[in-house]
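Incident log, support desk, overnight shift.

02:14 A customer reports that sequence design results differ from what the structure should imply. Their input is reproduced verbatim below. On-call engineer (initials T.W.) acknowledged and began investigating.
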């Protein structure tokens, strides 16, 4: 990280948010290339689809750290730094960021100690930045500007803009697979088009009454049409597809329960 700020928006120009894409990150290992340069590997866990891996030199981690201090979201002495997540809230004490200098050679044991330090620092900063901003959004509170600046730095550092579209598309592909599996499951269990007499009116979940194969087919078509018409795969599209998937699952569960009742079996 050289101090410049790469755009933290998608190709469509929308603002990206950490909590919409990333669940965790870690620094599991380090490697030394043929030129003797040490790279620390970063594994990023994605909310949708598969995660990805990237790598940075220590100087790039240091650039992220210094950028956060310049934004005044991380404050305090280098031996006791805290993360500010909102105005007026008690700041969170951070793990110590590994220092720049060392005595003696940069041997394997020393590099492993640095890796562990970077791993602890990254995990803590990412988790609390994402949670702080999500909490503000969830409660309709005003975002804390320094924390938004840190989010921008983290999005760039973790290469979210380059991977956002792929993650969303993977989630849509997963939804399509669920669609096909659900349709096959319903077919195998013998749900017919004429199965429209529904569940008992005394069923505690009213939303499951009057469910039929036609309802399931309708849910399948709704989701398929929704995804097919969504040319720009945005976070809202993924969330909308998830809502339709939930409805589809509810309908299928109701049909399975209905199909297993004595009256259904006798019919």
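02:41 Re-run completed on a clean worker. Output:
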């Amino acid at each position: 990280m050289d101090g410049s700020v790469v755009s933290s928006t998608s190709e469509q120009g929308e603002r990206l948010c950490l909590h919409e894409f990333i669940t965790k990150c870690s620094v599991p290992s380090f490697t030394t290339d043929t030129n003797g340069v040490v790279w620390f590997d970063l594994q990023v866990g994605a909310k949708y689809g598969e995660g990805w891996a990237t790598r940075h030199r220590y100087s790039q981690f240091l650039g992220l750290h210094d950028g956060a201090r310049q934004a005044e979201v991380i404050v305090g002495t280098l031996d006791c730094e805290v993360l500010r997540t909102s105005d007026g809230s008690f700041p969170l004490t951070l793990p110590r960021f590994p220092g720049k200098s060392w005595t003696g050679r940069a041997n394997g044991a020393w590099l492993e100690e640095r890796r562990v330090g970077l791993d602890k620092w990254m995990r803590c900063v990412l988790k609390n930045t994402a949670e702080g901003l999500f909490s503000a959004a969830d409660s309709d509170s005003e975002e804390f500007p320094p924390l938004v600046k840190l989010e921008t730095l983290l999005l760039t550092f973790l290469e979210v803009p380059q991977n956002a579209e792929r993650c969303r598309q993977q989630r849509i592909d997963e939804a399509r697979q669920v669609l096909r599996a659900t349709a096959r499951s319903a077919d195998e269990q013998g749900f017919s088009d004429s199965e429209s007499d529904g569940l008992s009116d005394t069923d505690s979940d009213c939303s499951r009454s009057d469910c039929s194969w036609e309802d399931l087919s309708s849910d399948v078509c709704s989701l398929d049409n929704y995804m097919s018409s969504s040319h720009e795969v945005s976070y809202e599209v993924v969330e909308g597809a998830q809502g339709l998937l939930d409805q589809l699952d509810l309908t299928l569960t109701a049909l399975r329960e209905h199909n297993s009742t004595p009256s259904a079996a006798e019919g």
